[in-house]
Amino acid sequence: MLSSDEKLVERCLQGDDAAWEQIVRSYAKRIYNLSYRYTNRRDEAEDLSQDILIRVYQNLGSFRPDMGSFQSWILKVGRNLIIDHYRQTRRYQQVAGTEELEKMSITDTASQSPERSIERSEEARFLRDGLDALSPELKEAIILRDIEGMAYLEISELLGIPEGTVKSRINRGRLELAKLLAKRRGLPGWQA
Amino acid sequence: MKCPQIEERLSEYLERTLPASEMEEVAAHVHGCGNCSALLEEMRSALLKCRSFPVYEPDIALIDRVLLRTTGKPRTRSFRELLDQYFLRTLLTPRFAMGAVVTVLFLTLSASLLLPRAASIATALSPREVFRTMDRGVQAIYSRGLKIYDKKNEWQAQLSFFKNNMFNRLGIMIEQLDVPQEGKKKSGEPRQQQEKNPGDKTSSLLLLPT
User: Fold this and answer.
1) Which end of chain A has less neighbouring CB within 10 Å, N or C?
2) Helix A4-13 crosses helix A17-39 at what angle (to 10 degrees)?
3) What distance separates the 2 farthest-apart alpha carbons in chain A?
4) pLDDT per residue as tens digits for the range B103-112
């Protein structure tokens, strides 16, 4: 028995544009938010989401329902592109230097959209800075588990690692994040 | 268990997925260890912050761009979207809102000024009232014409009276001027001659008052 997503994919492969539009509408928000967690920039997240959805469309034929759900598959495609983007950004960061990136970030946050004003609240910024200080693996585990609310099994399938490793990464990530946040707030007695 | 072993289990302790015996052991340790207790609280706080991280709505143009670059067709718009795009978005612009407010104020003021008079205006424009007004107007013009005519007659009578009066006075004055200075005899001669001449009667008659 095919799920509704799988039926949509089938219709899409038969050339039904309305089915593809339905898929885009269903997953655009999820993919956009996932991209945003990694990039922390609205424009980058939009470009990344666009690239991910286009890649999904181009590779719909390679989706196999017996290998996992469509959601897992689409998130895998998204994650691969996000990692590619991360590597490119890191290279750019090494070339451009932190100060330039900070300036770019300030310019970006200067826009007066409601989203930005919420984002600029101290709590969100504090947490975002803490997440950025984690290693990519730990940050990814925290994003997927604590922000995106995915189950251990889903994360395990998505990342292609055992569930035990996922749990271990999440625990380490939470510990490091907690220590970092406490240290930044100036709480004494931490062995970070 | 010592602190490093407790730290390994704190995440699962928070999610309550540890076996019951380990849950009790971690609880007992955390209760007695200030460092682990503070770390646990910090983890809980970070976890709550992560879970309340804002979820953003992507720009609707993103969907449009993706569809145009894949199927080549724009997204189908619902009635609500079309309404928003062509009507509500225009309505909700500050300039339009200001204009609408000014228009409403103008209409309200105009109505409050004109409505009390509207009934009388409507009555005045009924055919019966129009006919009556016209009739009144014609009557007024006629009576004014009559007055002017009377006035004209009055002026005419006064003029003719003045004219006759003037002629009489002139006649008397001429008569007095005709009297010869030498005496009554000479002056009486032409009178006799006048009486003798019947053709001159007309001239003397003209001097008589009418």
Assistant:
1) N
2) 120
3) 63
4) 999 998 888 8
Query: CB atoms < 10 A from the CB of A44, how many?
Result: 16
Rounded to two decimals, the ipTM of the complex is 0.73
Same domain, A50 and A107: yes
Query: In this predicted model, what pLDDT tens digit does every residue of B135-146 receive, in sequence order?
Result: 999 999 999 999
| pLDDT tens-digit readout, B57-109 | 888 889 989 999 988 888 777 788 778 777 777 777 888 888 989 999 999 88
Domain extent at residue A12: 1-111
- Does residue A107 sit in the same domain as residue A133? no
Residues of A in contact with B50 (CB under 8 A): 127, 142, 146-147
**Chain A closest-CA separation from residue B86 CA (Å):** 22
Same domain for A180 and A126, yes or no, is: yes
- Look-up of token digits 């569809």: B67
Number of structural domains in chain A: 2
